[in-house]
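User: Can you help me understand a structure? I only have the sequence.
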Amino acid sequence: MSTPDTTRRVGVTTEGGVARLALDSPHNRNALSDLLVTQLRQGLQEASEDESVRAIVLTHTGGTFCAGADLSEASDRSTDDPARERADQLVDLLRLIVELPKPVVGVIDGHVRAGGMGLVAACDIVVAGSASTFALTESRLGLAASVISLTLLPRIDPRAASRVFLTGETFDAAHAARIGVVTEAPEDLEAAVARLTADLAACSPQGLRESKALINHELLTHLDAHRDRVAAQSSRLFSSEEAREGMTAFLQRRAPRWSA
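Assistant: Let's start by predicting it. Here is the structure, written out as tokens:
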């Protein structure tokens, strides 16, 4: 009997010109732990260098695509500003997805929160199933969707951005498609993904590389121009008394002091 790999956080398979990377840490809702981020970066790089791969699918196991940063690791950081280190780590991951020379297709059929929203927005194409829900709850915790905004704000309708950033409300896949968070919310998720990956697999490596560079040029420029500003904001907010109250109230399942 084989021994299960308890250190695996990202499953990787390659077939038919498509590399499939699945966030596989359901015990903590696929939170962005150091190990998961390291394995995800490695999987993305290897798929990028594999000449047989035309496209990369980023998906998940369990009922949550990604819940954001793994806050349980905060005390393990070696720096004096662990919140800034986490912010920089997420920026680097988002930038890698955006700059890869191969298209990254997000396939979501679960809950997306916090840093997970940034990952979704970094993907080139995103399809979301009926089990998907989305929310930017940072404003309810005394925070802001700082780093996530780097990839999300250039993608979505500005009026819709004001609403979902400020209210923290939860919305479904159909609404996510209407406002630009995802590309499509098909009735048959697997069939839609099969059609999409077949189309990408038929394209030339050069055509995909140059088309993606053309599409994402402004996004990369925006990301590089604003990364320090939003990372500094994220660090400042996570260290604030109000955010500590917000996160404590959330964990204790009570209303924060400022709640009306």
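Now, to help you interpret it: The beta strands are 10-15, 18-23, 55-60, 64-66, 104-108, 111-113, 125-128, 133-135, 170-172. The mean pLDDT is 93. Let me know which part you'd like to focus on.
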